[in-house]
Amino acid sequence: MTAIITSLIAGIFTLLAAWISRPSASQSPEKNLSKETPVNTPVATTTSASLILGIISFIAWYIPIFGFPVSLIGMALGVKDITNPSKKMARVGIWLNVVGLMATCANSAIGAYLGYKGLLQY
User: Which is more confidently placed, 44 or 65?
Assistant: First the structure.
């Protein structure tokens, strides 16, 4: 079961990386050839951090005390760099963090309800 989940997560991240690296529809090959672009354009570090924290938030949601800060910091970093040229990475990082934050909120709400009703099994 763990191997299946791991391979699914790896496949999702592979598709995500392919989607990020594809050129946008507004860019035509003529435009790319006519203007000079630097060969090694560095990606903003805060955008990369937002994407990495978004991926980590998929693991951290299980323990809400870790999930909340990871998701909130990742969202803040993604929103900060939404105007950079690496806008796709920032958007993906924001969405990953939003999903991680929603999962964290759901987990803590369910835990609070079960704790209130006395149904938690230790």
Answer: 65
CA angle 49, 15, 99 (to 5 degrees): 55
Instruction: Report the C-alpha dihedral over residues 50, 76, 78, 14, rounded to 10 degrees.
Output: 30
Contacts of 66 (CB under 8 A, 6+ apart): 60
* Residues of the domain holding 105: 43-122
Model pTM?
Answer: 0.64
What total number of domains does the chain contain?
1
Which residue type does 84 have? N
- Which tens digit of pLDDT belongs to each residue from 4-42? 666 666 666 666 666 666 665 555 555 555 455 554 555
79 within a domain of the structure (yes/no): yes
**Residue 51 within a domain:** yes
How far does the chain reach from its first CA to its final CA, in angstroms? 24
Whether residue 74 contacts residue 93, with contact meaning beta carbons closer than 8 Å, is answered with yes
